Model the fold of this input.
Amino acid sequence: MKELSLFLGCLIPNRYPGIEKATKLVLDRLGIEWSELKEASCCPAPGVFRSFDKITWLTLASRNLVLAEEKKTDLLTICNGCFSSLMDANDILKNEAGLRNEVNEHLKKIDREYTGTVEVRHIIEYLYKEIGIKNLDRAIEKPLELRVAVHYGCHLLKPTKDRKLGGAECPVFFDELVEATGAASVNYEGKTACCGAGGGVRSAMLETSLMMTEYKLDRMKKAGVDCIVDACPFCHLQYDGGQVELAKAGKRYDLPVVHYSQLLGLALGFSYEEMGLHLNEIQNAEFQEKVKERQKTIHAL
Amino acid sequence: MKNSEILTCFQCGTCHASCPSGKYTSLNVRKIVRDSVRKDVSSAPELWMCTTCYNCQERCPRGIKVTDAVLTLRSEAVKKGKILPAHRIVCNFLIETGHAIPLDDTHLLIRRQIELDAPETVYRYPAARKEVQALLRSTGFDELIRE
Done:
């Protein structure tokens, strides 16, 4: 298997660097070979840029793909938006010669060429397929005792014909990964519904996007979970920052938001701070206590 | 997408019933895609209420690429200069920095606190940023979003 280049995107390095740190620590701990994808830009984001102009979206995505091609690595994303843009662009460029030629005309101006030799991976499907539940289980010494609301995020699963990760109505692979840490994935109404952030809605119509977030948070809260686990920094922002925005209207949830890299890191014995969870907006003392108590017992082993 | 594909729609409404945004807003994805065949919908604010979650596209019994149609309609609106102010800001960020959400001083400081250096992205490599800018000029993106 090819080595991986870690594609950071925008939100992770620039707003939630705790997720970046957690991902790097976890990849190292699991012995997964990776390196930075230097000089990468925005993927570019599927919401605004794909909507605006397909050729621009494809061209900028192709440059990021070419950076990985030149290193002879595959490309690892930790964001559903980056996964969606880069995977879809890669598929289109591999299969549609007309568009590939058009994009390569633009790339010529910066002395680069897209040849179609990389695969775009998402950390969730990568861990599931290449590392496997059994190996993850084995790597975890003491299971997490948490009740978790799993949020897949739309672009990890859909369009299903392009993602090829099974159906989108009742997916299980992410839940299995969560349960490998010892946490319980609690079912809740509207589990596969959108967080509300995507498509440029959060940036242009915050109130509208928060109505969808409220729908989700109400149902997660009702299910009695300790935290939300996501696979995407945009969903992460929508839940974490969204709770602050909703609190201004008197709606309080106090639900910690955890990217899977951070959850897995906790299970592997890293601390709350090492996983950057102290950098989230929502700080729930009870959750912190639970995580820290467990930490103490691990180190006492 | 071809209009002939949209015209295979038998108006069952599964798309609208599956729409998380349509539950709260005036977006009716069935109607807007249908309307686009016979009239100009580029000024409809509803075009920008879609989160592109793909529920409608996944569940369409006719296999109509409903979300892709919304994306196409958005591109047509943008060509006519119908760009929301917040989206124009994001586009300008991309042109200036290579990122839709650029790194600010607050977050650079937070990175340092957790022993992360400046990210290995275009942020750190001015020549790489120039490459991105050259591509955005080449595709005409900066012209497209100019006011």
Remarks:
- Residues 48 and 74 of chain B are 8 Å apart (CA to CA).
